[in-house]
Design brief:
SCP2_sterol-bd_dom_sf; SCP2 domain-containing protein; 125 residues; 5-stranded mixed beta sheet; alpha+beta; 46% helix
Length: 125
Amino acid sequence: MKFALVLLILGWRLRWLAWRNEGFRKQLENRNVVMQWRTFSGKPGRWFHFTPGKVVARGGLNPSPTVTLNFKDADYAFATLKQAGKNQMAFMEGMQAGDIKIEGDPGQLMWFMTLMKFIMPGGKK
């Protein structure tokens, strides 16, 4: 439940930033990326479609994501996301342990990580 809520709020934040933040909109130029977040079982799942000037967020699974971030379960996903705010190595440690798996283009995940400065509260205006 907590992971699903985090994904929902992340979608709201991404859409708001695409609408209101010039720096964030600049990062969306020339992008057409579908990023999907899910557990190994597929539930909960949510995907985000980044295009120039716009982010669309939807629940469920996308049939053709550009990159998918898979977590072993929802509790682990929530704990990792919570920890990642303080420890940027949390994702790498999870991948090394096999608790997080990336499918698709990992370069798009790296691009998404550059957006964190906008997503976190108190980020760039």
